[in-house]
Amino acid sequence: MAGRRVADWRFPTEKQTRAEDTARNMQRAAQQNQRVSDGVHTTDAIGPADPMPDAYWDAILSDPRARARPGIPIQNRRLSEIPRPVLRVECLRCFRIVEIQTADALRLYGEHAVWKEVGKTLLEGGCQSRTGNRDDDGCWPEWRSA
């Protein structure tokens, strides 16, 4: 072992490599013979560069989860456009959650108020995570509807 390099023990010898290749080829031939005897025609697998069959796209597009959601995100909607009974805004820094009923928000802020502005107002001045930098302080809101 004195004349061999340090990492040589990690790699298979040439004889071991040939034996593994032969075993792999024999296994592949046995599987192919089994498929032919079962009457199943073998085809090459579809790769990422191959076009997808039309049946695949039909199945994807007919799935109810593929239907488009309303185009306007909830934070950009007016309070009168949100059908949910409870609105929730959460701070991603201090994990504080503020909930308000839609009816109360309409009464306090008006039906033309945008939920984004109302949510910022509700979270204002209460963030527990302070950085010391005036620009970075404050909540990072995430709008949700419960």
Description:
- With 146 residues, this protein is an alpha+beta fold.
- The protein has a domain at 74-145.
- The protein is 35% helix and 11% strand.
- The chain is built from 4 helices and 3 strands, in the order ααββααβ.
- The chain has helices at 14-38, 54-62, 102-109, 115-123; strands at residues 86-91, 97-101, 141-145.
- It has a 3-stranded antiparallel beta sheet.
- A hairpin with a 5-residue loop joins strand 1 and strand 2.
- It is elongated, with a radius of gyration of 31 Å.
Contiguous uncertain segments of 5+ residues = none
Helix coverage percent of residues? 25-40%
Strand order of the largest sheet: 2-1-3
Which oligomerization state do the chains in this entry correspond to?
A: single chain
Distance between the termini: 70 Å
Instruction: Round the Cα radius of gyration to an integer and report it.
Output: 31 Å
The number of strands is 3
N-to-C series of helices and strands: HHEEHHE
Features of this protein?
alpha+beta; three-stranded antiparallel beta sheet; 4 helices
Question: What does the secondary structure layout of this molecule look like, with pairings?
Answer:
Layout: H1 14-38, H2 54-62, E1 86-91, E2 97-101, H3 102-109, H4 115-123, E3 141-145
Antiparallel strand pairs: 1-2, 1-3
Can you summarize this structure?
This protein has 146 residues and is an alpha+beta fold.
